């Protein structure tokens, strides 16, 4: 979903009207929101049950670090180059994240469980 959300977010920069830009922002939020379930399920299926709490903590820590650093980076980009640079950066980050997640390999057992769940 993030792979689709990146170009949609980039469309905000190129949107001819504010209404189209707002619609594209809503679409981006929808697409990013759709990615949350699988992004949380994959690691939980990949680690032993005794490490699920630690894996969740590491994921939350990563999100918190992003929540601290992103306003600083976006504020710097807006101050130096304007809002267009910030939106292009965010769209590029979404695409980069999607590519990194696509490289994650699930263990065979977890892969089989996810395939069975998808069939039902």
Structure description:
The protein has helices at residues 2-14, 18-46, 52-81, 83-102, 108-119. It is mainly alpha-helical. The longest helix is centred in the middle third of the chain and has 30 residues, at 52-81. Residues 1-109 form the Major facilitator superfamily (MFS) profile domain. It is found in: Cell membrane.
List keywords for this structure.
single chain, 120 residues, mainly alpha, MFS_dom, MFS_trans_sf, transport, MFS transporter, transmembrane
Number of domains: 1
Distance between the termini: 22 Å
Helix content: over 70%
**Oligomeric category:** single chain
Mean pLDDT, to the nearest integer, reads 83
Annotation, overall tally of beta strands: 0
Secondary structure class reads mainly alpha
- Our count of helices gives 5
Strand and helix order: HHHHH
Question: Nutshell version of this structure?
Answer:
Pfam families: MFS_1. This protein is mostly helical and 120 residues long.
């Amino acid at each position: 979903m993030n792979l689709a959300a990146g170009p949609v977010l980039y469309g905000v920069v190129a949107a001819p009207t504010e209404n189209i830009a707002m619609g594209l922002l809503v679409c981006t939020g929808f697409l990013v929101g759709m990615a949350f379930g699988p992004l949380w399920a994959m690691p939980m299926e990949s680690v032993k049950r005794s490490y699920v709490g630690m894996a969740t903590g590491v994921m939350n820590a990563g999100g918190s670090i992003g929540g601290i650093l992103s306003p600083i980076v976006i504020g710097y980009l807006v101050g130096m180059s304007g809002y267009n640079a910030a939106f292009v950066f965010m769209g590029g980050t979404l695409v980069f994240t999607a590519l990194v997640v696509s490289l994650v390999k699930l263990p065979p057992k977890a892969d089989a469980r996810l395939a069975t769940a998808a069939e039902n």
